[in-house]
């Protein structure tokens, strides 16, 4: 005896309603996140952009290598003070395959490292198959994380007790922290609140201070981007353009 057509119709209708509800929920969450991120940027005097296709191409390691380049959503760009001065920052939702996999927080250093260092939680399946950026060499435990590096001797000089202490403050909800060129970045969970991102920015800023300490020699300091009428530094980000 065959199944009546009305049963198949009912099943299809229920599936359609469930799918619509999921889409509506996702859209509502994205809209709420967009508004929250936009308000946060406005309060900090930072710039906001809904979508940027080029920004994720600045980096190749860490979460970018693991998930793919993707695109940036709800991007906040500006600068913030750390113990060693003002630094450029980005906060963005990293989206691949139509899904936000993490919130990336990046703090820029004054000078680039010659080695890429990735610090992964031991609970994360961090192995990856990426021809552009294959998994670096395993250096070993660094606090509660495992370090993967592109140059072991160079990395040993960078990974000091101060760096380990700073990395331990990042938090167990951050799957990977990595140092690439002149950036220190971290991947936080999707839907991380502005309050959590503020704390993460401070912690990542401390890591940047460790690997890129203030140089008291004025001749070696980087020139400010611009100055306001009172002589303070002003950061004017350019979305979508590599430095």
What's the main sheet like?
Answer: 9 strands, antiparallel
Q: What's the Cα radius of gyration? A: 21 Å
- Unreliable stretches: 17-29, 218-237
Share in helix? 25-40%
Number of helices: 5
User: Into which percentage range does the β-strand content fall?
Assistant: 25-35%
Look at the structure and give the mean pLDDT. Answer: 82
Q: How many DSSP-defined strands?
A: 9
Shape: globular
How far do the termini sit from each other?
Answer: 69 Å
Structural class: alpha+beta
Summarize the helix and strand pattern as letters: HEHEEEEEEHHEEH
Question: What strand order characterises the main sheet?
Answer: 1-2-3-4-9-8-5-7-6
InterPro entries: TtfA-like_core
Protein name: Secreted protein
Keywords: Membrane, Transmembrane, Transmembrane helix
Organism: Lentzea waywayandensis
């Amino acid at each position: 005896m065959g199944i009546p057509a009305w049963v198949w119709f009912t099943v299809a209708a229920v599936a359609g309603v469930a799918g619509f509800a999921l889409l509506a929920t996702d859209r509502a969450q994205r809209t709420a996140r967009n508004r929250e991120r936009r308000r946060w940027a406005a309060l900090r005097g930072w710039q906001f952009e809904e979508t940027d296709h080029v920004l994720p191409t600045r980096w190749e390691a860490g979460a970018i290598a693991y998930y793919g380049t993707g695109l940036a959503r709800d991007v906040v760009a500006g600068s913030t003070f750390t113990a060693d001065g003002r630094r450029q920052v980005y906060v963005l939702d990293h989206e691949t395959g139509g899904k936000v996999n993490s919130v990336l927080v990046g703090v820029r250093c004054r000078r680039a490292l010659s080695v890429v260092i990735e610090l992964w939680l031991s609970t994360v399946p961090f192995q990856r198959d990426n021809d552009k950026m294959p998994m670096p060499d395993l250096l070993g435990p660094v606090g509660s994380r495992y370090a993967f590096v592109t140059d072991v001797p160079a990395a040993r000089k960078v990974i000091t007790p101060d760096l380990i202490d700073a990395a331990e403050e990042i938090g167990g909800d951050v799957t990977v922290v990595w140092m690439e060129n002149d950036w220190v970045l971290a991947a936080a969970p999707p839907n991380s609140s502005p309050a959590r991102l503020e704390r993460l920015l401070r912690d990542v800023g401390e890591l940047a201070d460790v690997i890129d300490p203030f140089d008291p020699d004025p001749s070696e300091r980087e020139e400010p981007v611009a100055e306001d009428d009172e002589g303070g530094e002003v950061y004017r980000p350019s979305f979508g353009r590599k430095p």
